[in-house]
Amino acid sequence: MDTKIKICGITNLPDAQLAVELGADALGFIFYPKSPRYIKVPDAANICNQLPPFVTKVGVFVDELEYEIEKALAECLLTALQFHGDEPPGFCQKFPAKSIKAIRVRDEDSLRAAAEYDVDALLLDTYTESEKGGTGKTFDWSLALRAKETVAPPIILSGGLTTVNVQEAIRKVRPYAVDVSSGVEKEPGRKDPEKLRRFIELAQSA
After folding, report:
1. The whole model's pTM is what?
2. pLDDT-based confidence at residue 172 (cuts at 50, 70, 90)
3. 188 with 157: CB under 8 angstroms?
């Protein structure tokens, strides 16, 4: 099965439309005010309402209140919810949408925490002390391989992926999907068309 491609940190309609035209399977909208890629629910809804029917729309949340998630889910008609904070396992199963739990990988202990989540997919991102994601840094991909052996849900590989390393990442890890944000940007929240095109092309041919 071909590796799926998620373009995260979408903040505007032209970037969303270009990503879809180039072959992205999923788009991520970050509803976390501290993120430089933050988007308000009405703005995301405006974009989502203009997307083709078979594009997966992922809402990204960090320790958000339940009613705020429900509001975004309803207004944006989100396909999946990605939990990128310290949400407990039970919380991720409360909503009528596919669930993705982001695990910030530092060592094998991080993978033990991942095993507690009964979700539709696990997204493995790079651990940093100061940021919840979008760091542009990779982690030890051998831990992603270890996760594939020890946890049941499909693995989405994230963290520092670029046009330089995405093919190597796919060949080494064989993830269900890859997730990129800063690696295809010209500035936070604005995608670089050439980087976006090249990333998707390389990922599809890996």
Report:
1. 0.94
2. very high
3. no
The residues, any chain, with a CB within 8 Å of residue 41's CB and separated by 6 or more, are 31, 71, 72, 75, 76
**Whether residue 130 has pLDDT greater than 60:** no
Considering the candidates 8, 48, 76, 92, report the single residue annotated as catalytic: 8
Mean pLDDT, to the nearest integer, of 173-199?
A: 97
For range 107-122, the mean pLDDT: 88
Q: Write the CB contacts of 171 (distance below 8 Å, at least 6 apart in sequence).
A: 206
Q: Is 92 among the catalytic positions?
A: no
Query: How many CB atoms within 10 Å of residue 4?
Result: 18
Task: Note if 76 is an active site residue.
Answer: no
Q: Which of 15, 76, 92, 125 is catalytic?
A: 125
